[in-house]
Specification:
- Helix 2 packs across helix 15.
- The protein has 16 helices and twelve strands.
Length: 441
């Protein structure tokens, strides 16, 4: 059994390395002109191989929050696996999954491994001391004389132990739902998605890019881990981006950031960090993409689909409350505790606003799609630890650190929480009833 680190050991060791030798990130992305130039990239027009029902559009958004978030999201996948729509599983109707930080591990693994996820993911990821593994990777004497950064060490670990060398070409061949892994462009502060549409802005090809590096970028907490660096290549025409109304400042900022990649001199390298900095719930991936397309209808037509009577968005929110009880102790929190607390403050501050914005957009998009002949019904389902009915369990799981180190009993409790929170969610049960589905037992 792997010995687990003492609390704060990883962060202390990492900080101790900050004053060490300078590191220079290796570049993992290749120019579009030299790798798979004529092949379709992994992006919004990704063909769906499995037949799906023609009455539901189902998307999932997995938040950040370390292994706590990964386990909660995995519980939701298990519940969808056991929920029936006639002869089919509700899981088979998922069109897309957006993941941030810890949630990106669950999203990427399911997109790559599909059904095998349910026999592998717990042992490969959830029930291992990944924090300890990462520390050993960073402290490996063979690395002392290299310039490999901490995020590169993390990507090496993730690649060898979790994703086994898989690239986005492998994800594309898997034929599952579209997986959107989200990071944050440190210079502009905008969301950066690992989709070919974003790599086109860099004149780069996503197909050969390691899945582990994308997940490492999405979970690269500043200070503890270095940014993951991409090169912005020359040789492609400037992107054609839509004009944005003056009353849409967030969308204007997004488009301005995307246009900035055309300046190959000033933006030669793109530094990517934790996706939670630009939206921890993973919902912005859907909002921004649909808004840029001009609405849900134009977006669906762009990807070769048609509006369906039911649009279901399941948001899995693993935000906790690491600061609970801090007012009872004069002793200041440790560095790792302070990072957890700052992260939770950010999540609580912005998650409610994000959910309200998503709700309003869903209402507007589906109103625009509805006709006298048929109404398009939106459903926003929120699975959140704060909704656990038992106060003791709620408080206990909310204080699980946002690290990559869970105790076995924490894994079981979080997975079960994800299942029960979805199963008992009133909006979910209402949507399932309208679809003629059967809840899991």
């Amino acid at each position: 059994m792997i010995r687990r680190l003492a609390p704060g050991a990883l962060s202390a060791a990492l900080l101790g390395l900050l004053a060490g030798c300078a590191t220079y990130a290796s570049i993992g992305n290749q120019p579009r002109a030299t790798a798979h130039a004529s092949a379709p990239g992994y992006g919004l027009a990704q063909p769906v191989e499995k037949a799906r029902r023609d009455d539901i559009t189902l998307v999932l958004a997995f938040s950040g929050g370390g292994s706590r978030a990964a386990a909660l999201a995995y519980g939701v996948l298990l519940e969808l696996h056991d929920t029936r729509l006639g002869e089919r599983r509700l899981l088979d109707e998922v069109d897309a999954i957006s993941g941030v930080s810890g949630g990106s591990f669950t999203a990427a693994y399911y997109g790559l491994r599909g059904e095998a996820t349910f026999s592998e993911f717990e042992s490969v990821f959830l029930r291992r001391d990944l924090s300890g593994d990462l520390l050993r990777e960073i402290l490996n004497p063979l690395r002392w004389f290299t310039r490999e950064g901490r995020s590169e060490a993390a990507a090496t670990l993730f690649d060898g132990e979790i994703f086994r060398g898989a690239t986005f070409a492998d994800l594309q061949r898997a034929g599952g739902p579209l997986i959107v892994i989200n990071a944050t462009d440190l210079e502009g502060g905008n969301r950066f998605a690992f989709l070919q549409e974003y790599f086109d802005l860099l004149c780069s090809d996503l197909r050969g890019f390691p899945l582990a590096q994308a997940v490492a970028a999405s979970s690269a907490v500043p200070v503890l881990l270095d940014p993951v660096v991409l090169e912005n290549y020359r040789g492609c025409p400037p992107p054609v981006l839509p004009s944005v109304p003056e009353d849409a400042p967030q969308l204007q900022q997004l488009v301005q950031g995307m246009r900035s990649y055309a300046d190959k001199d000033q933006r030669r390298y793109i530094h990517l960090v934790d996706g939670g900095l630009s939206g921890n719930l993973g919902l912005r991936a859907f909002e921004e993409t649909i808004d840029l397309a001009g609405g849900l209808g134009p977006f669906l037509r762009r990807i070769g689909s048609e509006p369906k009577p039911h649009v279901v968005v399941v948001s899995v929110d693993a935000s906790g409350n690491a600061a609970a009880g801090i007012g009872l102790d004069r002793k200041p929190p440790s560095m790792l505790q302070a990072i957890d607390m700052a992260s939770d403050v950010q999540l609580h501050r912005y998650n409610a606003a994000t959910l309200e914005q998503t709700h309003q957009r869903l209402q507007r998009w589906t109103r625009e799609l509805s006709t006298p002949q048929g109404t398009v019904q939106p459903w926003l389902v929120t699975v959140a630890l704060r909704d656990l009915p038992d106060p003791g369990e709620r408080a206990r799981l909310a204080k699980v650190p946002t690290s990559f180190d869970l105790q076995p009993e924490q894994v079981e409790a979080l997975v079960q929480a994800g299942r029960l929170l979805l199963r008992n969610n009133p909006k979910f049960r209402e949507a399932l009833g309208n679809l003629g589905g059967t809840p899991a037992e």
